[in-house]
Amino acid sequence: MSKKVITRDEWERKLKDVKITKEDMNKLIMNFLVTEGYVDTAEKFRIESGTEPGVDLATITDRMTVKQALQSGNVEDAIEKVNDLNPTILDTNPQLYFHLQQQRLIELIRSGKIEEALEFAQEELAPRGEENQSFLEELEKTVALLVFEDVKNCPYGDLLDVSQRLKTASELNAAILTSQSHEKDPKLPSLLKKLIWTQNQLDEKAAYPKINNLTTAALDDPVV
Amino acid sequence: MPSSAVTNRPEEVTARLGVGGGAAQGEALLKALREVKNQIIGNKTKKLLYLQLGAVPKIVSVLAASVASSLGGAGLEDAPVIVQAAAAIGSFACGVEDGVRAVLDAGAVPHLISILSHHDDKVVDAGARSLKMIFQSKMAPKYDVLQDKNLNFILSLLDSDNENVTELAACIIAHSCETNEEQKALCDAGVLQRLVSLLGGSSNQKDACLECIKAVVKDNSEVSSRFSCIGNGKALKALSDLIQDRYPYTRLLSCKCLIAIGHASPSYVEELQIKTKLVLVLAELLEEPGRVGDEAPFSLKKLIADNEELHKQALSINVIEKLCNFLHMSSIQSRRLQGILLALSELCSKLEKCRCQLLSPQVYSLNLEVRVLDLVIDSLEHDCAEVRAAACICIRNITRSLKDRLQNLSAGSLSNEAVVIRLVQLLYDPSSSIQLVALGALCNIIVICASRKSVLIRCGGVSQLVRLSTSMDSTLRLKSLSVLRNFLFLANTTDKECILKELSLHTLVSLLNDAEHSIQEQALALVNNLIDGCSSVEHIFTEKCYSLILDAVTRQLKQASSLGVCIQGMFVLSNIAAWSDFDKDSVTDYLIAYDDNHKPSLAIKFLQSNDKSLRLASLWCLLNLTNPSSAGSSRRVTKLQTAGIIFQLKSMLNDPCSDCKLRLRMVLEQCTEFETSQP
User: Complex ipTM, two decimals?
Assistant: First the structure.
């Protein structure tokens, strides 16, 4: 089946015809900054572009201190802060609470406090597994870390990655946003996903200048 | 762990709580409260531990003291203590029944209510959140909205700027509003208007208001109609818009609201257009994860209940495929599975097309080797009782028209023994409602197909059915008897003998004499099926059996407790009237017998009935009695003549029922033959 071929010139011409307003783009950026919690940047952007954040920036600050505490590995501090912000969040999100406890254990293991880690696993994490069977698998993986000498290179070593902290931080951020009736996902990633999906669909029908690198957004010539 | 002067072990933290005595004060008390709060939030084990240590009454006493002192105009220090105490109390009430009880027993609610009017927003938030936790529990007291004072208080909460407070008000109303009177009082006070205006708020507020609206309008036609009139239909429009909200949960709640209004007062929502939209939205929501997808099939079932038009709509947008796709998932939540089975049952309750779709071997879900019906049958063994019951109902409805589709049986569907065996297992279920739906399903399945009958016998199903037919519960007696009756339909002699042996004469006679006439009727129908196809009594009963049964039958005919009983009874006599001369004579004697009060004989009475089925049954009987090929027919005709039966028949020549007319003429023809051939 021969596909239709669209040259770079044709493509760029078509793209030029699509109109997007600056206001819309600014709103997208503001939405991203607010959802991800970049308060200072949001404030500066508000001043420079005149785009309204749509939320009280003070609430973002609260959220950000929680996120930062977690990203620096101070899980207990993050828990206390989120409980100050809204005590119902962790009470109504058992999976999130489990992940936070799990992160506490990971941090104890990371800093080599094995005795404390064992005690914590027994006192705090084991009950979570009893309260809810669906946590058992992840629980076992985390506790298994205690068994290995070289933790970083063991089968579950990726739990010690910073990315794990970020994952939990993201989960916590989303829960806070939901409790404040905000959308928990920024719109920008969804747009990018849509772009990739659309290109995949078009791939079946045509050869055209494609964006393969989302960060540069460069148009690669059509493969004929 | 390094030792310190102050540890955080629950026993020691609890010791620091309270007012006076050994309790901590000031900053130390605040710290202790905060410590408890942070330990228990999200942690059921800790909550239970602190409950056992008696922490709740202590915390409530701290709250009470701080509130009193705060109202006395004193400390700014009070606010943080109140916030922490309130938060801890709210957390105890979250997800732990003992916690709710402890909080209620300690008298926390009035104090929490009093801080709702505090000047510090943080205090108000804390109080509102905690109260919301409490009122979300079934154990929370009902707020008496019939008292003016209370109603005004709720209204003032609804007017608040603070969303936590308005959400709380909505929550209290939804929890406390049960009777029509309460719903009306709330409606009269303008609560609905206020809730509708709050629908423009944040998404959490929307959801709280939608749940509340539903509670106020539910099953109340007056309030529902009044809701439809608010703002000349603007309120309804607001709900309709929300069924396309960006959040699935909001869409679901608004659907539920509209369905509730539609059921209570069919008017605006009666329009097919809006209902079709609801079907579409709910069909999409079926695929949402979590509680939205779990609840969507229940709402769908409610929406389309008994509405064939909507069943067709659902069919046309492939709802059945969507539902079936879930059935094959290995780890589906019980609640969702129950909902899906109930939704499928509803769809199969009326439309043959739906049933065919589920029975047809071509319908596979994603896994090509599994039939949908097999998945439903598997659910008969599910751990959860509600799922088992839903699976039974589903099978019962799928097999509804089975009797009419004998040809389709060879397609392999339902020839699987498993369904019979599993349904029989459910006959032993401790819940009688599950036994009943299992009986309903068996009733349909057992009618045709010899192989299923033999399975039923082999797995002990007949014994259990007979046991259930002597249950104290009359519905169980009735249903199990119906299964036995269906079993005997077109049964062979071996099967008949098996049933008789299990059932025993004694039980059969007592069922024929049952207090409930519906059961009498089924018992008579069972006897009919027993004797159907026999050419003489010896084929099926011993003489003693026969006379006892005939006694019971004739007794019931005389009592004539219901139309159904009479019709079935006459069928029995018709069948017997096809037997030997001797049998025909006894039937004749019986039909023409007078009692002392000169009431009309049974034959006359039934021939004069308004019900055509009864007339027809009687005519069949007479047809058999006057059969020319039988030696004694001539003397029987004479008897009938003397008893005025022939005269009665002649007066019925213009019977409105054509079937009756036909049989009538045949009887008269047969009788006239004898008249003319008399010497």
Answer: 0.83
